[in-house]
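Justification of computing resources. Each target in the renewal requires a structure prediction run like the one illustrated here; the chain below, 659 residues long, is used simply to show the kind of job we budget for.
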Amino acid sequence: MSLPPGFLDELRTRLSLSDVVGRKVMWDRKKSNQGKGDMWAPCPFHHEKTASFHVDDKQGYYYCFGCHAKGDAISFVRETENVGFMEAVEILAGEAGMQMPARDPRAQEKADATTRLTEVMEQAVQWFRLQLKTAAGAEARDYLSRRGLDEAAQARWGLGFAPPGWEGLREALAAKGVSVEDMLACRLLRESDKGRAPYDAFRNRIMFPIRDIRGRCIAFGGRAMDPADNAKYLNSSEGPLFDKGRTLFNHQQARAAVGKGQPLIVAEGYMDVIALAEAGFEAAVAPLGTAVTEDQLALLWRMAPEPVVALDGDKAGLRAAMRLIDMALPQIGPGRSLRFALLPEGKDPDDLLRAEGPPAMQAVLDRALPLVDLLWQRETEDRALDSPERRAALDASLRAAAALIQDADVRRHYEEEFKRRKWELFNPRRAAGSAPATQGGTPQRAWRPRGAPAPALPTPSTRGSLLAAAGAEIEEQLREAVILATLLTHPSLADEFAHAIEELDWRGQGHAGLAMALLSHADAPDPRRALEQEIGATALEKIFAPAHVRIAPCIRNPGDIELARMCLAQDFAILSADRGAVREIAEAMHQIDGLADEGLTWRLGQASEARHRAANNHETDKADYDIAPNGARLDRSERASLDALLDQIENQKPRGRRH
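Resulting structure tokens:
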């Protein structure tokens, strides 16, 4: 429909923008100057405590300095009422006392039909309300009373009752002049497949009116009173008024409550929403018999940037959460996501509120998890990660999940978060280390996966052994520095060696933090520059400072990536093997205090045999090293420690004991 020239200009002239906006906001009296038409308020489009939403009455425009929403009276009504352009114009024209120009005949006919059908629906609401008060509705009243809904609450929600008969509503509406065709269009009746007259769609059910964003009843939900009924809950069929995938139960009231600062809660059903609202959580909505659709998700985000999805804490609730995550991932963006409040297993919001009251529900909402937490839980829970292949499968699934995110910035942050969590998962000892890693002189938080035990403190014998000598530790830290310098010189190799980087027990000062930062920025256009911005150029310079690092072949030949790849593989292998030997011997020396049993004797014996086999099979230039059972190389000092340990065990065993 086209509007005549000058119609919108006259409409804007007749209306004060501050009057239109004033229905949805509370003006900041100290900041506003009503005489000059300069008004300020907290923004109705996003949560805030300060008044950053500005209305200029003279210009007829609003602007939010927080979320950058802007527009005129028509756009304000469109956004807050969730209506189209022409509907917004109609609403404003009615307020301004202006007659809308003649519509296209077909459009006018459709609008008239919608108005007529919504009037029929309101008559049905009133009839169901009356039936709830009759003797036939006694059982339904008792049920609602047991659920904590008194008469006042029943009236607020327009609850009613459809009696068991097949034609009660049809006859009542027909007596008021409503045609059968309109009742069928409203989906209040159903056609008979036996050639009989249409019959009532709802029978022996508690009735919940479903209203659109403008408060008009467009459908019903019915809760069966007969436990043997095939469908416990039944919604109206879709028709001219009702599209269940684009409708939310309690949409209008929830939007108003969100505007007052309440969090938007997404529950599963009518009773949950009603229980939440009656308990003070008024910004509660529910989808209608199906999982949340993309259209409903868009409606949710128009009300709040981060709705809280309240789910039953059982497997079905978690499955629903996972389906919603998959649908939401392509659409999330800055200031547009979801949080998930998981209720105690076997309880929905209504159960929890009746059992423990609003404080218990508030506690659940306060613990709501961000979307990334549930996504990580899904990808890692009940998943064995004890082999390179299985860890690679985890990498693939995490990459696939992140790839669904369309917003580049959010996708990058998810990838960095996954890398951080993988490092924590595969490095429990370092994550829980006794001495915190430092970065630029600042202690960094030590991470430990949930449920992982804290590492045992070193025993006096371990601390005093040759394995903990300062010289060995310095050599290891220099090797770590060479690895980091090589990765900084060849950042393209970071992804290839990601597992080794994550699994290595970094011991040099600041090495762990630098390694994880390097992984996070491996895909950046200029990783070196990105690292300098994050941790400072000084920290990078310290890595290259030692002469041992500068003379390393892979550093002296920065253009030879194959040489760098070989050096990294060798250095990671040496560190992993050497530290494996250290752990074996340190553990054995710790156990000697309690006179180790045959199992320990056998294990050390196997280590000794492996050592001798290695000595006999290796070339003379490798004679200084032996091989431990875990594949680690043993130098002369470590070999001496093993021999001494075996002798000590043998000498202290009681005589006659078999071994």
